[in-house]
Every structure is written in C-alpha cells, then in structure tokens.
Amino acid sequence: MIVRTTEEITGTDRDVSAKNWRSKRIILADDGVGFSFHETTIDAASVSEFHYRHHVEAVWVVEGTGTLTNHETGEEHPLRPGTMYLLNGHEAHRVTSETQMRMLCVFNPPVTGQEVHDESGAYPPAESLT
C-alpha cells in the first residue's frame, strides 16, 4: 500500500514546475503500478502547449476554468470543475486558463518524474529515460 500527501511531496523532486504550471507527481513509474498520477496547477491567464506522443493522459478538472483546443481538429472545449478529457489519440493541444486551474492527471505509461517537455510540448518515450 502506498499513502502519500501533496504536503509531503511539496518541495521534493516530485514537485515539478515550468512556465505556467506546477505538477505534484504523487505516483511515478518507480512505484511499479503501471500508471502515474499527478496534481497539476496551471496559472491564471496563461497558455500552455502540450503534445504527449508517447503517453495517454486523462485529466479531471477539479478547480478553475479555461479552454482546451485540439490542434489537430481546431475544436475547442470549455474546461471547468467536473470536466474530464482523455488524450487517447496523442492529440497536440493547448490549455488556455481563465482562472487558476487544478487538475488530477493519469499518465500511461507512467512518467518517471525526470521528463522535460521538448519544443513541441512532448515527453520522450519512457524507455529513453531508463
């Protein structure tokens, strides 16, 4: 059994920040459960570009409002508490926040916590980090 709090993760190597966002990685690949689980906060009035070519991500919005844009189709979707989106087709996308947003995210395959977004917003394949 694994029990962790976001309080104990804060300020450790599981607490990752970049321009416009912060991700507290609660479960990572080395936990050996086949997925990773994160609490991500996106700054108010910001734009973030992502493209997870090697991961499927499910996102549950628990706080804040914004817009999700699918770069492949141009479709826009409002984001608010209770909204879930699943990037099951590895879609390149943009999150434009109106207010600070807090999201709970699951990645498969799990991330290691050492990934860095490349210029396209993607993480490298998991095997390249081992």
Automatic annotation (TrEMBL):
It comes from the Bacteria. GO terms for molecular function: ectoine synthase activity; isomerase activity. CDD domains: cupin_EctC (cd06978). It catalyses: (2S)-4-acetamido-2-aminobutanoate = L-ectoine + H2O. SUPFAM superfamilies: RmlC-like cupins (SSF51182). InterPro entries: Ectoine_synth, RmlC-like_jellyroll, RmlC_Cupin_sf. Its EC number is 4.2.1.108. This is L-ectoine synthase. It comes from Mycolicibacterium chubuense (strain NBB4). The gene is ectC.
